[in-house]
Design brief:
This protein is mainly alpha-helical. Helix content is about 50%, strand content about 10%. It has a 3-stranded mixed beta sheet. Helix 1 runs parallel beside helix 3 and helix 5 packs antiparallel against helix 6. It is globular, with a radius of gyration of 17 Å. The protein starts with about 30 loop residues before the first helix and ends with a helix. The relative contact order is 0.13. The structure holds zinc ion. The site of zinc ion (ZN) has 4 residues, from helix 3 and helix 5.
């Protein structure tokens, strides 16, 4: 369905009680409540949410402020499932700790966009990087700075939600920043580094 630019769609829900979806048996109820509270915050801010299957590129989640004229969107990668776009579907977590940390990091990107600290050029940088794997060094730095910003904002949000598993969070942050650095340094970037540029 085509929509006018600027028109926002709400996340689908089967009822207004979507947030009362019972905690899956395999999930820690405290973490699940934090996940539900986070989904509620994101939904209240009119950010569209979707769950997508695992990709081969190692992507765990993604954020774009306006990919198709319907406002901001967060994608959460969940292994072993299809695409899901309803709030009840988003709440059907597999590894709640993992998905909570991914989701709050992507929400950190959104908060950064809303408070004006996310450089507008980031989306172009990511597109160029995905297309040919090489971007100017200054753009790589912008990207890494943005990652740190999103993790800092994620930490603040999780603190408000009562999260306490900071060792897991810190590990994911280090892995995330490390993965971005590795990608950005790949290929031509190594040669430029060795040349001292
Ligand atoms: Zn990120």
């Amino acid at each position: 369905m085509a929509l006018r630019a600027g028109v926002r769609r709400r996340n689908q829900r089967q009822s207004d009680d979507w947030h009362k979806t019972p905690c899956p048996a395999h999930v820690d109820p405290r973490l699940y409540q934090q996940f539900v509270d986070l989904v509620k915050i994101i939904d209240d801010e009119n950010v569209l949410l979707g769950v997508i299957p695992e990709r081969t590129n190692g992507l765990l989640g993604d954020y774009h402020p306006n990919p198709n004229g319907q406002g901001p969107r967060i994608w959460l990668v969940r292994c072993g499932g299809g695409e899901r776009y309803g709030l009840e579907g988003v709440l059907a977590v597999k590894n709640c700790r993992f998905e909570l940390i991914t989701l709050v990091h992507e929400y950190g990107h959104h908060r950064s966009h809303v408070d004006g600290t996310r450089p507008a050029i980031i989306d172009e940088v990511v597109k160029a990087w995905q297309a040919n794997g090489a971007i100017p060094w200054e753009h790589a730095i912008l990207n890494i700075e943005q990652e740190h910003r999103a993790w800092d904002l994620a930490r603040r949000t999780l603190t408000r939600l009562g999260f306490t598993e900071w060792a897991a969070f810190n590990m994911r942050q280090a892995e995330g920043i490390g993965a971005h650095c590795a990608y950005l340094r790949a290929g031509k970037r190594i040669g430029e580094l060795l040349d001292g540029s």
